[in-house]
Amino acid sequence: MKAKKNIMWELINSIPRIIFWKTVDFKYLGANEKFIEIIGLKSVDQLIGKKDDDLSCSNKYKKYFNQYDREIVLHGKPILAIQSTLSISDNESLKISINKYPIYDDNHKIIGILGISSDASGENYNNQVYLENIIERIPYFIFWKNIDSVYLGCNQKFAELVGRKSPQEILGKTDFDLRWGRGESELYTSGDKKVMHGNPLINVEEIIARPDGSHIVMLVSKVPLLDKSGSCVGILGISTDITERKKMEEDLRIAKEKAEEATHAKSVFLSIASHEIKGPLANTISILDLMKRSIEGQTFVLNDWAELIDAEIKDAMRGIETINYLLEFLTLDLPPIQLGIESKVNIRQHLIGMIDPFEKNNSKNIAFHLAADVKVPASLKFNRSVDKVFNILLSNAVKYSKSEGEITVEVSINETDTKNYLLITVKDNGCGINKDVLSSFFSPLLADIKNNAHKLYVAPAIKLSYAKKLIELLGGNLEINSQENEGTTVSFSFPFDEPEFDTKIPTDFQQHAKKKKPVFYRKLKILIVEDNPVTARLLESEIHRLGHDVDVAFNAVDAEILAKKKEYDLIFMDISLPGIDGVELKKRLSKPHSDRPIIIAVTSHDNEKDKAYLLQQGFVTLFGKPFTREDVESCIEAVQRVLFDLEQE
Question: pTM for the whole thing?
């Protein structure tokens, strides 16, 4: 027995490590010679039965060997790689790494502590130092635990996060020893188990309570640590504080909601303003049109009145046109931006067709000229919103041209490496624009108007501001040059494509309506749904005059009742109805798998976005306010053609 004991001591002393063991009361039971030498004792007998505090006060190493003893006994878990530096002399130091393990009896009861340390001064220690430096400099919170969720290490950032001064204060502890918030220790421990069972946690947001009572938002990742055999031996956690980022995201979300609310409020306001302003004007124009037609050719005096009424109609139409452009200008920034459709046209014939009404209906005897460069292709494909811009330029040129003046339209091509642009220039030799006004011409409100004379330019400035913005949305540009008393030149360019040959014939409502064929008259059953009694009365009168049956409903409820009693061929549907609006009512009155009733939207909202929206909702076309007798006749005639075609199919 004594021989075996001697052999055991020889083996322990031959191991090139520091070895010691203690009771659960932290009393030394033994140690090897290397340990005895380091702490300055002559024999192991001087150590046995003593605690670290019982050692000589001159022993400056004793504090290194009692670290985490209580944690080992309390949790029964080993603590590994406890780094220490022992100062041997002024010029010499010893770096050691200590591992401590619980000692169990046969009944798995802890009966002591085993400490084994090694000299860490060599290359392995240098590698350890590098690793520690790397971990400390990574701008994340880093920790690692063993398989029992006992902390084996962390960086300084994590130690400070949990209210500790250094990583050494974390070693050997579990989450239950740290000052987490209520219920968080259980949550983290159960999460560790899931990770160690093969379910890594990657970039998961967690709200963490700090020791000072504040909360932070962390982006957390946890992965299992595996040994060479692939068995899980612990867990690695890496997290970063995203509190400021989340606050910024929340601020952006709130700002976005406020901006959307403001945009919606602006859109609603403009819609209401359009309806309230244009509705009465539309009725005025329609009434004046009926009055003019009733008195035309009656007497000399009445003819004078007819001319005055005609002039008033034109003025009111110009006012509504200006309002339209102003409202469209203000809504161009509102998402979603919906511009006109692209289509192919013969550009020369197309421009001649647009110039023709201005040439025929001007009282100044203005001469129009069109000059197209030979490089301009015969057929072009471009966004038809351009037509509005060209119409504005012609309208302004006519308004400010002199009697017997001239308006010249020039068309050319501007080629670039990436796109081809069509350049259209409209020149007039009219009164021109004052240079002070011209400097702020693209402000839709002409904020720096200085005298009454400048107010003459408000309407054309609104239109031209709208035209410039529209062209820019199409990827083009618009410029204006003018000399007072000499004339004005406005040029705009926009991208275009040369279309491929296409033999397909579209068959939508507009195509049916434009077919040049005789109209086979049939008496239609028509329903007018309109909350404005003046508008409803005007439209009803015109439809009666054409010989059709017509009913009127002033709200959605009455319209549904009438639609259940009678099969209508055509419904004129006002969009801005009280309660249930025209879009929702259209859905209720439409019949699946049936061509009837044809439902036409009646609205004063005639910008491109509203048109696109209403067509998308299934309205076959739009009937605008104000309307004239010719508008009603043309619409009814178009419906007749459509119904005839549908019956022939």
Answer: 0.38
